Amino acid sequence: MKKYAVFASRISVMTALVAVATCMISVPIPPTRGYINVGDAMVMISALLFGPIVGMIAGGVGSALADMVLGYGWWAPYTLIIKGLEGLVAGLLYKKLRSKILATLPAGAIMVLGYLLVETVLYGYGPALVELPGNTFQAAFGIIVGICVAEAMEKRLKVKLPME
Q1: Alpha-carbon gap, residue 51 to 92, rounded angstroms
Q2: pLDDT (tens digit, 9 = 90+) per residue, 47-88?
């Protein structure tokens, strides 16, 4: 029972941290009625430290909650899927490869390409291309910060955090 309580606590805390990080710094992008944010760093941290399930739930739900809080509710269903996949892939690849770089690069690409696809369908290729550099920067920032923070936390924690 304690194992499930710890697991639920990790999901809850990381979901909240993803939402807060996403809301903290957000830059609106008018052509797609979306925004660029720093929440991807917390998605990566969630996946690298706690595994694919925590990464998926915290990434998807935390980011979708931020969409709703910031007034971008129409993006929430897409964000739930895209950011959930980002966290899931980062966690699965890290669990298998034990390389943070090799785990987070494809996960970041999923986020960038996921939003490019949705924006192209909703607004056309032109507006989607306007947001592409911002999403690419957001992914790169999330990867760099996520890896650095995860490394620092792993080294400073007395007990190695088990992944599910």
Answers
A1: 7
A2: 999 999 999 999 999 999 999 999 999 999 999 999 999 999
Distance CA 85, CA 32 (A): 21
Q: What is the CB neighbour count within 10 angstroms for residue 1?
A: 5
Predicted confidence band of residue 32 (pLDDT cuts 50, 70, 90): confident
Angle in degrees, 0-180, between the axes of helices 39-50 and 52-69, rounded to the nearest 10: 160
Q: What does the DSSP 8-state code read for residue 124?
A: -
**Token pair in block for residue 16:** 């909240």
Cα 138 off chain centre by: 10
Q: What pTM value is reported for the model?
A: 0.93
Residue-by-residue DSSP string for 65-98? HHHHHTT-GGGHHHHHHHHHHHHHHHHHHHHHH-
Show the tokens assigned to 40.
């991807």
Fold of 2-156: Arp2/3 complex 21 kDa subunit ARPC3 (1.10.1760)
Give per-residue pLDDT as tens, 88-139. 999 999 999 999 999 999 999 999 999 999 999 999 999 999 999 999 999 9
**What sign does the CA torsion over 133, 93, 147, 4 have?**
positive
- Residue ranges of domains in the chain: 2-156
Q: Which of 47, 141, 119 is CA-nearest to residue 89? A: 47
